[in-house]
Amino acid sequence: QSALTQPASVSGSPGQSITISCTGTGSDLGGSDYVSWYQQHPGKAPKLIIYDVNNRPSGVSNRFSGSKSDNTASLTISGLQAEDEAHYYCSSYTRRNANWVFGGGTKLTVL
Amino acid sequence: QVQVVQSGSELKKPGASVKVSCKASGYSFTSYGMNWVRQAPGQGLEWMGWINTNTGNPTYAQGFTGRFVFSLDTSVSTAYLQISSLKAEDSAVYFCARTLYNWKGDRSAFDIWGQGTMVTVSS
C-alpha cells in the first residue's frame, strides 16, 4: 500500500484538461513543500515534470502545472495530447522519518 | 550531456547476490546525492533510500535494511546497489536517480534517472 493515494486511472480527450490528485497526511505531503510529479511511459524511466509543488524543470511543457492544498496535491495537464498518455506518480518528502514516498500512480488515457 | 547509465539486466538464483551499477557523466558526481527506486512488475515506484556521494553515507528506507547496500566508487563516478540473499520478490526494475537540490539547497526531487536495471530472481 502506497503512502500517498492517487486515482488508479483518469482519461480525457485531446485538447481537454485533466487533474490528477494525490492525497497524503500532515506528516508527509501536508507538511512538505517538496512535492514532485513524474511521468512514466511504458518501459521507460520516470521523468520529472513538477518539483516543489508547482515548479517545472527546464524543457517541460507549460501545459503541466501543480498545486497543493492541505494534504492534497494536484497535477493539471491542459491541452491534452496523445503523447501525454502515460503513468503519473506523485512524491513527497516526509518529515516523520526524513524519507520520500510515492503515490501508487495514475494511468492517464487520452481518448 | 548530464546522464546516468545503469548496468544491464540480471538473472539470478534465489540466495545469490547482485550488484547494479549507475555511472554518472556530464556533472560533478560528488555534488549530487544518488537515490535508488524499485519498481516491481506492473507496480508503482518505491523509494529505497539514497547515498550522499560527498560523504558516502547511505540512508535506507524502511524495508530496505539488511540485505541492501549502497556504495560508491567516486574515481569512476559510479554508484552501486548490492542486494544479497536474493528472493523471488526482489524481482523488479531498479532505478538510480539523481537528487535535485532547490534554491534553498534542500533535497527537492529526483531529476536525472537511469534507464533502469531489470533484476529477475528465479530458480
Keywords:
heterodimer, A: mainly beta, 9 strands, B: 123 residues, mainly beta, seven-stranded mixed β-sheet, four-stranded antiparallel β-sheet, globular
Q: Can you walk me through this structure?
A:
The complex is a heterodimer of chains A (111) and B (123). With 111 residues, chain A is an all-beta fold. Helix content of chain A is 0%, strand content 45%. Chain B is 0% helix and 53% strand. The termini of chain B are far apart. In chain B, the strands form 2 sheets. In chain B, strands 2, 4, 5, 6, 9, 10 and 11 form a 7-stranded mixed beta sheet that branches. A 4-stranded antiparallel beta sheet of chain B has the order 1-3-8-7, with no helix packed on it. In chain B, a hairpin with a 5-residue loop joins β9 and β10. Chain B is globular, with a radius of gyration of 14 Å. The model of chain B has no long low-confidence stretch (mean pLDDT 96). Classes of the chains: A mainly beta (111), B mainly beta (123).
Detail the topology: elements first, then pairings:
The complex is a heterodimer of chains A (about 110) and B (about 120).
Chain A: E1 9-12, E2 18-23, E3 35-40, E4 47-50, E5 64-69, E6 72-77, E7 86-94, E8 99-102, E9 106-110
Parallel strand pairs in A: 1-9
Antiparallel strand pairs in A: 2-6, 3-4, 3-7, 5-6, 7-8, 7-9
Chain B: E1 3-6, E2 10-12, E3 18-25, E4 34-39, E5 45-51, E6 58-60, E7 68-73, E8 78-83, E9 92-101, E10 107-113, E11 117-121
